[in-house]
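User: Please predict the structure of the protein below. I'd like the answer in structure-token form so I can feed it into my own downstream comparison script.

Assistant: Understood. Taking the following sequence of 94 residues as input:
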Amino acid sequence: MKEIKLLQPIIITEKNELVSGLHRLETAKMLGWSEIECITISCNDIDRELAEIDKNLIRAELTVLERAEHLKRRKELYERNIQKQRQAQDELMA
């Protein structure tokens, strides 16, 4: 990052919660950067965690166990999200 700068911005929520880019953020701190480019997204806690899991699943250095844990958690969150969407639809139809 020192030589080529930041190729991909970090991603944060409107509440300044980090979604993606922990390694980039830590590297920027080590290099003494006072600012880093970021993308701000609007999402709820479930969507934030889903995005974080998806980014982690892309990383090649996960063990088989870590990958399985991420996939299990992703399934739980996805099902909870679907359930909330269905409840909201039912309330609108009532």
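That's the full token string. The chain is about 55% helix and 10% strand.
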